[in-house]
Amino acid sequence: xxxxxxxxAFAQDGVATAQAQQRSLGHAVLRELVxxxxxxxxxxxxxxxxxxAQRFLDAGFPAGDVDVVGAGPRTQNLVVRLRGSGAxxxxxxxAHLDVVEALREDWTVDPYVLTERDGYFYGRxxxxxxxxxxxxxxxxxxxxxxxxxxxxxxxxxxxxxxxxGVDNGIQWLLEHRPDWMRAGYVVNVDGGGVELRDGVPSVVxxxxxxxxxxxxxxxxxxxxxxxxQPGPDNAIYRLANALVRVERFRFPLRPxxxxxxxxxxxxxxxxxxxxxxxxxxxGDGSARPGAxxxxxxxxxxxxxxxxxxxxxxxxxxxxxxxxxxxxxxxxNCRLLPDEDPAQVDAWLRAAIDxxxxxxxxxxxxxxxxxxxIDPVLFDAFRGVARSLWPGVEVAPNMxxxxxxxxxxxxxxxxxxxxxxLPQDPDDDRSHGQDERISVDAFDQSLExxxxxxxxx
Length: 456
Prior knowledge:
This protein is an alpha/beta fold. Among the domains are: 25-191 and 403-455, Zn peptidases (Aminopeptidase); 210-251 and 307-361, Alpha-Beta Plaits (2-Layer Sandwich). It is built from 14 helices and 19 strands. A hairpin with a 5-residue loop joins β1 (66-70) and β2 (76-82). α3 crosses α14 (439-455).
C-alpha cells in the first residue's frame, strides 16, 4: 500500500514537473516570437521560421522532417513533421507567423517585446496568433521529448502572408509542396476558442465554416464641367444614390450547419433570454422567417445569418470648382460559404438599378465550402476540453472574417479552427493597441494543446 502511494506521488510530481517545463518552454517560444518583427512592411517571417527550426533540430528532429521554404527571402515558412504509427491519416496543424503593424507611440509598452504586467502578456501577436503558434511548437517538442508516438503524423506549418495576402504561405505550400499538405483534416488555431462567461470557460467554439471575401467597385462617370453650372446628372450624386440602394438591400437569411450549432449553444447558454426561443429554433432547424428577422436585428447575429456588403472606400471629383467626372466606392462583401457569387452580382446590380453605375469585382473570390461536423472528432475535442474545464461545451461556429482555412477548404481538406486559450470576447485586442493575453490562460492553452495532440 505504501509503495502504491509513493508511486502515485512520484507520478503526480512527474506530471507537475512536465507541466512546469511546458510552461517555461511555451513562455520562451512566445517571447522569442514576439521579439521578432514579422510585419509584412519591414519584418521577416524567415527569421522566426529559422529560429524555430533550430529548436526542432536541437531537440533531435531529423533534418529531413524540418524545412524552411517559401516564396521570398523575407517570407519563408516553417514546416515540421512529427512521425506517427500510421494508424490514422496525417493531421495538419497551422498558424501564421506574420502580424499587422504596431506603432510604438500608440502602445503603453514596446509591441515587439513580450511584457508581463498585472497577469497579462503584452505584445504584437500574442493573441493573433503567435500565442497559438507557440502552443503548437511547445506541444510537439514535449511529445517528442517524452517519446510519444502519435497514431498518425503531425505536420506543423507556420506561415507567412496571412495578414496581407502577399506570398501567402498556405497557398505557396499547396502549390509547391503538396506532399506536406496532404492530411485527413487540419487544426487551425487562428480563430474559434474558449469563451469565458463571468470568468468561467463555458464553450469552445470550433469554426467549421467561414464567410467568403469579395469586394466590388461601384463607378459613376460624367463629362463634368464648371461647378457654377450644376446640372441634373452628377457623378457623386449618382454614386451616392446607388450606395443608399445597396444599404437598403437585404440578402436572404439562411442558416447553415455551423450557424445552427452556434445558435443552439446560444440558446443553451441563457435559456431564459428573450432571444432563446428564436435561437433554439434556428438550432433545431424549425425557425420561421420571423425568428430569423428578430435575431438578425443584432449586428453579430445578422452577420451569422446572411451575406453582407458595406462601403469601405470612397473617392470622387478632381477639383474644388469642377463638376465631378467620376466617383467611385468600394464595397466589401462577406458571402455565406455556399452563396453563389454570380447571384450576389445579380442581386447587387438589381439593387443599384442604374446602368450609369458600373459594378465590377476587385478580384475573384476564394470559395470556401463548409467543413462537415464530424461527431466523433467533436467528442474527442470535448473530452480533452473537459479534462481541463469540466462541463465546458464544444460547438460549431462560422467565422465572419477570413483565415488561411479558405485555401485548404477549397482544396478539399476539412478544417477545424479553434485555439485552447480562455478569452473574454470583450477583451479581444487583435490588431489593436496593447494586444494582450492572460498569462494563466496562455498556460492553460499550452496544456490543452499538448493533451489534444496526444489524444488525436
